[in-house]
Amino acid sequence: MFVALSTFEIANDMADEVKEAFVNRPQLVNNAPGFIRLDVLSPKDNTQEIWMMTFWTDEESYQVWYKNHMRESHQGVPKGLKLVPHSPKVRMFDHITA
């Protein structure tokens, strides 16, 4: 299994709107080949930070989705959202065990 971890920090106190957007997301990725699940987390010690973990059967499935659908997956981003500069990051993991 492959996991992509995307993180970012909100600069303008719109965390509640961003979290609500994730709850009500259109779920476009759910039917992507190789997609397993999406977990969205926010650390207790920094509620302006969002961690988005997508689980895939393999890295190739993630790369195909990322290349072809990244723009449409961001359609629900709240208007006016500003991120802390240089905070968005994507890290990739091999899943060893649960």
User: Class in CATH?
Assistant: Alpha Beta
Count up the helices: 2
How much helicity do the residues have?
10-25%
Structural class: alpha+beta
Query: Helix and strand string, N-terminal first?
Result: EHEEHE
Q: What summary fits the major beta sheet? A: 4 strands, antiparallel
Query: How many domains in all?
Result: 1
CATH topology: Alpha-Beta Plaits
Runs with pLDDT <50, length 5+? none
Q: What percentage of the residues does DSSP assign to strands (E)? A: 25-35%
The radius of gyration over CA amounts to 14 Å
CATH architecture: 2-Layer Sandwich
Order of strands across the main sheet: 2-3-1-4
What is the terminal separation in angstroms? 11 Å
Tell me, rounded to a whole number, the average pLDDT.
92
Approximate shape: globular
> What's the β-strand tally?
4
Account of the 3D structure:
By secondary structure, the chain is an alpha+beta fold. It has a single domain (2-94), classed as 2-Layer Sandwich (Alpha-Beta Plaits). The protein has 2 helices and 4 strands, in the order E-H-E-E-H-E. The protein has a 4-stranded antiparallel β-sheet. This is Antibiotic biosynthesis monooxygenase.
Protein traits:
single chain; about 100 residues; alpha+beta; Alpha-Beta Plaits; 4 strands; globular
Which helices and strands appear, and what pairs or packs with what?
Elements: E1 2-9, H1 15-23, E2 35-41, E3 49-56, H2 59-73, E4 89-94
Antiparallel strand pairs: 1-3, 1-4, 2-3
